[in-house]
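Most newcomers find our protein records easier to grasp once they have seen one. To make this concrete, we reproduce a full record directly below:

===
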Amino acid sequence: MNFKLFAAFIVLAIFISSFSCSNKLNRSRKPAVLITVESVHKKIIYGDDINVSIAVKLKDGELKETKIFVDSVLINSSTNAEFTSYLKKFKSLGKHTLKAVAVKTDGVEGVYFKTFEVLSDITPEQYGYEVVESYPHNETFFTEGLEIHNGYIYESTGENAKSAIYKTNLKSGKILQSVKLADQYFGEGITIFNNHIFQLTYKTKLGFVYELENMVLVDSFHFESTEGWGMTHNEKSLIMSDGTNVLTFIDPTTYKTVKKIQVYDTNEPVLSINELEYFDGYIYANIWGTNLIVKIDPETGKAIAKIDLSGILTMVNTNKQVDVLNGIAIDPVTKKIYVTGKFYPKLFEIKLVKKG
């Protein structure tokens, strides 16, 4: 490279660098937003007044407006660099997302997020149990769903190539009717609603609908959750769990999600919610991997009570392998409570006993 060409190259490089630096100096910078969330408690409790404080810092330009959103819903806006929004008596359990969008007069905006968590204000009551009676239960059933309807037990079983729904005689355990799933499906929770059996599957995001009388498949549906676990219903909606602390309410006709609730106690989310039963205005849920059943308020997601069924298998002698407690059925007529588990040799009728 000769000297003239080298000199020209240096001049060009200096020009480009100067242009680039000039652009950086002239470029409008995004506003920064500091979000502070506080309540009267160290941890936010259901029904608390929540203060959301906003502080906007500008490196250049002027602020036009800052908008505040909670779970994508606009709650306030201001032209001030610092201001506070108040969420009065906030009544929504679980994790929530705050979003602050600060916009300058030249249109440049800064978007910032902060999460906060709301705990229940109710300490769950504690219950134990008494075994009233025990009935035969098929030890090959990997129980995923349990219902009692017109005095008969309906049970959904899992595992690929083994999944089915069975109608059995309560007292004898004799199988009266059944329908098998295709081998690729892992059966999960069931519920009986409007003379149909609704059934979830595990990881295919697919549910099935059968006529109650003859167990003929009449429909299928897709659901939003990644996994299907337990299922029940209230007067209007199907209710499903997915192994988290979230319960999803589904329209039984359109199969669209109606609402979701997050289940919490006074300390933390109630995770691993599994098989479900709706009775007398409350949801009862097995907690996977434990001997606990949790009673849940379906309107708020509050854990109202916890029922400890530890030791229930000591009521029977079994040398065979069993899995976790799973399966709750409450007879709407007699109000008797029945529980079982995966590979359990017995179905137990229990009575709840309040502790303390």
In short: Confidence is low (pLDDT under 50) at residues 18-23. The CA atoms of residues 61 and 346 lie 73 Å apart. The chain has two domains: 32-119, 125-354. Residues 32-119 form a domain with the Immunoglobulin-like fold (CATH 2.60.40.10).
